[in-house]
Design a protein that fits this description.
The chain has 194 residues and is of the alpha+beta class. 32% of the residues lie in helices and 18% in strands.
Length: 194
């Protein structure tokens, strides 16, 4: 399936999607560092950069700990990813020039921008990414020793794309790019009319 944009956009926005079939091959740390570097340059309110990424390469204890924090449905396919990465952010931060940390109402927004930067860089390098909301934050908090000020937003599976036949039978038919809501359903000039 080829996705079609309603208005002219760079092809990478329609070509990037979130497959679940991974090869399981190892990802070089240098490649992961490039993805993280792209995320580092994401826009950030007051340049606070509240996002924090914790990751584990396949075959490590950290990978196993992150995998254990996923719901069983996601464990069934994410176990073949090369890397599992947890997207978190600090809920409070000291603004530039300040010494006292205060609540940062934009921490999640900024973390989302950083994750998207990582996803685009991965796509440009021939990797696939799949963001997951199906996780147990308490399990991940314990496994990764997160402080009270950290919020878990998502777990990202990263790796090379595998054959859809490697997925459980029920997921094979779903292994294709999906569409998006029409622009009129997400944007309007003026008042809320959705």
């Amino acid at each position: 399936m080829t996705r079609q944009a309603a208005h002219p956009v760079a092809e990478l926005f329609t070509a990037r999607w979130s497959p679940r079939a991974f090869t399981g091959e190892a990802m070089p740390q240098a490649d992961l560092d490039t993805l993280l570097e792209a995320a580092r340059w994401a826009p950030s309110a007051s340049n606070i950069q509240p996002w924090r990424f914790l990751y584990g390469h396949a075959g490590t204890g950290t990978f196993a700990g992150i995998l254990a924090g996923l719901v069983p449905f996601n464990q069934g396919w994410a176990n073949k990813a090369s890397v599992l990465l947890v997207v978190t952010s600090k809920k409070s931060s000291a603004a530039p020039g300040a010494t006292e940390a205060k609540p940062n109402p934009w921490h999640a927004f900024d973390a989302g921008a950083a994750w998207m930067s990582l996803a685009i860089q991965a796509h440009l390098m021939g990797y696939i990414t799949h963001g997951m909301g199906g996780f147990d934050a308490a399990v991940l908090t314990t496994a990764l020793e997160l402080p009270d000020d950290a919020q878990v937003h998502a777990v990202i599976a990263i790796g090379k794309r595998g054959a859809k036949e490697s997925l459980p039978e029920g997921l094979q038919a779903r292994e294709l790019p999906n569409d998006r809501l029409p622009l009129s359903a997400i944007a309007t000039e003026g008042l809320w009319r959705f």
